[in-house]
Amino acid sequence: MIALFLLCWGAIAGTVQVHVLDVGQGDAVLIEAPGDKKVLIDAGTGKSKVAQQLRERGIKKLNLVVGTHPHADHIGGMVEVLKSFEIGMYVDNGMTHNTLTYSRTARAIENLGIPYRAGVRDRVFNIGDEVKLTVLHPRSTLLRGTRSDLNSNSVVLRVDHKDICFLLTGDAEDPTERALLNGGLDECDVLKVAHHGSGHSTSDSFLRAVKPRFAAASAGLKNRYGHPDEHTVARLASAGVTLHRTDLEGTITFTSDGKKVSVSTAKEAPSTGPGATVLGGYAVHGDEPPLHTDETDAPGAVNINTADEAALDQLPGIGPKRAAAIIAYRTQNGPFGSCGDLQRVYGIGPGTVTGVAGQCTVLAPKPKPKPEPKPEETP
Predict the structure, then answer these.
(1) Residue 166 host element (H or E)
(2) Cα separations in angstroms, 95 against 100, 132, 139, 229
(3) Which one of 186, 190, 318, 376 is separated from 20 by 20 to 30 angstroms, measured CA to CA?
């Protein structure tokens, strides 16, 4: 559905609007809450012109600004935002970064005298009388030794408006999701997909816990990273989540009245034919099986949650080293939710996952049917 919000910016009285702004390969989320309260989470790259987008919406003050982590695709446009608007408070994950983008942002916060708070778990910000922002991650003790510590310690926010919830995840990755699950994670209506839809997050177990109805991925059109990853998109589809994408639909707006949520987009996603859904650049039609089916009862399928090294070694493209890495990963992190989750193991990519499709399973074997008891003869 094409939105008309370009002509009527600003939340209707009593509603909350969460705009996943179209900033190319980056992130920026604007929240407009009752009482003329505005929150910005991330500011895209320096080329995203987020400040200009905000000015075009008539915004003069941002009550709260959050930098989820100090990568340039999230805070590249932050200095201009900080200098262009009245800022009530700035929040980030407390991590520094040895880049000019980060140092300029930190200097602007200090020079402008903007109040600062570290975003740590359980810190709560009231945005007017109806909206509450709760920091779910990071904890005061940061995650270390991950694939990307900056990503894994992204500020993760839960936004509550009466009965409606939004989960905004920055560039969270596998370790972040495990920490969130271990700390207890409630269901949420709308998910801002982590890390532009990267394959390093949005696991099956995470989706089972959150049970979102809608999701939004912020990515640049035909970006060189392949975001959103086709396996991530397939996991969302398998979980019954309706996914919207800025690379295909432009700015995505979720509107909550506190009881229900609706979605509008700046433009319609391109259609690839009747009944087709665009998945990571591939068209999957309703009469075709989903990409990389993970559950199979084919004879000889290898259960990657129980198989030993010798059995895993027999899977195409695995070999002894990857077999050992699979066992080490599941020992440390628990069972795989799908065969697509093999990508979470260092050294295994999409090509290998495709190669094992049909020979890999996470399902327990079906029990053999018990023989029917012979009826007894009645006297």
Answers:
(1) strand 164-168
(2) 14, 24, 12, 27
(3) 186
Q: Which has more pLDDT, 357 or 173? A: 173
Q: What is the pTM of this model?
A: 0.72
Q: Please state, in angstroms and rounded to a whole number, the distance separating the CA atoms of residues 79 and 12.
A: 30
Report the relative pairing of strands 252-256 and 261-265 from DSSP bridges.
antiparallel
Average pLDDT (87-113) is: 96
What's the domain count of the chain?
A: 2
Range of the domain at 350: 302-361
* Confidence band of 285 (pLDDT split at 50, 70, 90): very low
What pLDDT, on a 0 to 100 scale, did the predictor assign at position 355?
79
CB atoms within 10 A of CB 282: 13
What's the pLDDT at 301?
Answer: 85
What is the percent of the chain where pLDDT is above 90? 68
* 3-class SS of residue 282: strand
Question: How far are the Cα atoms of 88, 98, 365 from residue 327, in angstroms, in the given order?
Answer: 49, 36, 19
DSSP-derived secondary structure for 305-330: TT--HHHHHTSTTTHHHHHHHHHHHH
Distance CA 63, CA 99 (A): 27
Domain CATH code at residue 351: 1.10.150.280
Q: Residues 165, 306: one domain?
A: no
How does the average pLDDT of the chain come out, rounded?
Answer: 85
- Residue range 293-308, pLDDT digits in tens: 334 445 678 999 899 9
Tokens read off for 106:
């930190």
In angstroms, the CA 183 to CA 143 distance is: 14
Q: How buried is 224 (Cβ within 10 angstroms: 0-12 exposed, 13-18 middle, 19+ buried)?
A: exposed
Evaluate whether 116 touches 90 at the Cβ level (below 8 Å).
yes
The answer to whether residue 378 is domain-embedded is no
